[in-house]
Amino acid sequence: MFEYELHRMNHAQLVREAAAERLAHQAAETAGATRGLRRLGRRGGGQDPEGRVNDGGRGRFVRAA
Predict the structure, then answer these.
(1) Spans of biased composition, class Basic and acidic residues (predicted)?
(2) Would 49 be classed as within a structural domain?
């Protein structure tokens, strides 16, 4: 019976550690995504908030899809 209780305690500890690690990875992913969105939102010197559009040298108007 004692071994069973030790096993249950060890299992509970492993489950807690896995949950904490999962939460840490999720927080890191969220922070990375936030950092990327913040980088996209930065404005360059004198540029529009949407950024520059490159038409690939096709002229002023491009054919619609």
Answers:
(1) 49-58
(2) no
